[in-house]
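Trying the structure run again after the queue cleared.
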Amino acid sequence: MVITKIEKQKKNKERYNISIDGEFAFGLYEDSLVKYGLRSGDELTSEKIKEMQEYDEFGYGKKVAYSFLAYKQRSKKELIKKLKLKKISDASIEKIVELLEKQKYLNDELFAGNFIEDKLNSRPIGKRLAKLKLSEKGIDKEVIEETLNKIYSEDKEAEYAERVLEKYVKKVKYKDAADKKNKCYRYLISKGFDFDTVKKVLSIGY
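Done. Tokens:
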């Protein structure tokens, strides 16, 4: 198999079409083209083509991953989903994830803690809802439990619930005391606070 033409793509100037024996065979990014020093007239084997395509996909996947992580911290599940949307193979995704974990760009333990701390600093939520949100991010159960146990003590969760309630009572009108307590109860439960915490906070006199 002989390369008969190397042509820059019209829609993606960083990618090149490689023609073999007069017909289009595959595409490569410029980095891959330079690494393998490809020129018209070069002979290729099936094994060499496969090697180049794997290298090319891995390189492209890394660029996608670094760009995705540069915007904000992400969980492993979020990154994998992003790479799958870009049609990266499972084999390349596994290598990319392993590399980024070694480079400390990807760390679900750190992500989980920072994610919940950010939530608590803006709009506090209860431990139950925090657990659900971390689960949706694909965080392992053990990591979730360790993270939440560090952040949520019984007193702390009550403190967060009080902060939520202080804002809520200023915005809502009530018919009577019973109506007020009922609405406050339902609102705190909806924010992920457990029954004991809600009962404790409402007993203070809201």
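The mean pLDDT is 91. Worth checking whether this holds up in the mutant runs.
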